[in-house]
Amino acid sequence: MTLNIKLANELFRAFYIERWNEKVRNMPFTEMDKHSHKLVLVYCIGKYEEKNNKIDWNCILKDAIFELLRRIATSDIKSPIFQKIKSNKDVFKKLNEYIFNKYDKIISNLDFKNEFSNFLFSENNREKIEYKIVDAAHIYASFWEFNVVKQFNPFPYQNEKVDHEIRNKLDRYTDLTGINNLLNNHSITNFIDLCGQLRFQTRWAQTPRLPKTSVLGHSIFVATITYLISCDLNVCDKRLFNNFFGGLFHDLPEAVTRDIISPIKRSSEILDKLISDIEIELAEKEIFPYIEKEWIEEIKYFSQNEFSNKIIVDNKIKKIDSTEKMKEYNVDNFNPFDGKIIEFADKYSAYMEAKKSIEVGITSPDLVEAVQHIKANYSNIVFNHLDMKPLFEE
Q: Which of 72, 92, 250, 350 is the most exposed place for a label (fewest CB within 10 A)?
């Protein structure tokens, strides 16, 4: 099994890694939040490029996840220093050897480990369209952060220098429609801003907790956990794409409704349905007008009834009872979507958020109850042959 408790713990470390920490900030900027925003950008830029290119989304997702692991391992190295190291092949190889050795005992799946090794040591052509999409998204996500950070830094000469450097990097990707649209304030810019605001929404807002995780950071953790489980189930390409971006966008409506805590939603079926209806209504008014019309149905597929297993037959959505039964529809043409895996990943993320806070001494009855409740209800889940119990071991 690719996903194990050691790898989950390592991924969670991205919530602790702060960015721009040499600058005045109104709030922390974490590596996890940046990575999540980056993948939202990857989706949008990739969708534009699909009009004229066949996009290998599996290549994109692997590259993005492996890059997150590398960033976690090199969190103490500032980006400009990292770029200088990268320009020296011998030094960069030594750094990658350090990274690989760090993960060697954490990653137990041999195929996944070999792919990670190829990512670190193969000289991939970054001019390939898939890599250009990832790299452009990475730079624009940094640009978005900088535009927030510079408002709080009273040193114009430093701001101008950073702004010039980032814009020069973005200029290399103006052949990508998505980057052009973003730089020219196309309506998609509003969607990216809206998703970016999810990093300002703290989860468990009424409960003291460390680290304080955002809705945006939570979303990429859910997407990554879902992706790793999906890989072990040998899902088809479309199912893997749907599962990852379903995890990434499962909380998208919270961009306009805020994070309504689960106990309120669960207090009655009537209230839960009403909140869902309000989310759908507000999404129609405040989210979908900013994205391309041809993406809307797919985004709805990801963000509505997001915890249901489903397929599409004759242009109609059909719900499927179990993950076991989803094997019958493991073909791209059915557009399969594993909402139950996303639901598990969502609850597992909440479990980790509560458990990690307790471990560092910031606890409360709510956190203790959450850990106990989630472990009791989700540790016995088995997806086909994959047993989730080891993920809850101490």
A: 92
Decide: helix, strand or coil at residue 336.
coil
The 10s digit of each residue's pLDDT in 38-71 is 999 999 999 999 999 999 999 999 999 999 999 9
Residue 245: how many other CB atoms lie within 10 Å: 26
From CA 376, how far away is CA 368, in angstroms rounded?
12
The CA angle 253-305-10, to the nearest 5 degrees, is 70
Q: Which residue has the tokens 């907790």?
A: 209
Average pLDDT, the chain: 93
Residues in the chain: 394
Element spanning 255, H or E: helix 254-257
Determine the Cα–Cα distance for residues 236 and 328; give it in Å rounded to an integer: 11
Cis check: omega of the bond before 211, within 30 degrees of 0? yes
Give the mean pLDDT per block of 10 residues along the chain (394 residues). 95 95 87 98 98 96 96 85 87 95 95 96 89 97 95 87 94 97 96 95 90 96 98 97 98 77 58 75 91 97 95 96 93 98 98 97 95 96 95 88
Rounded CA separation 79/95 (Å): 14
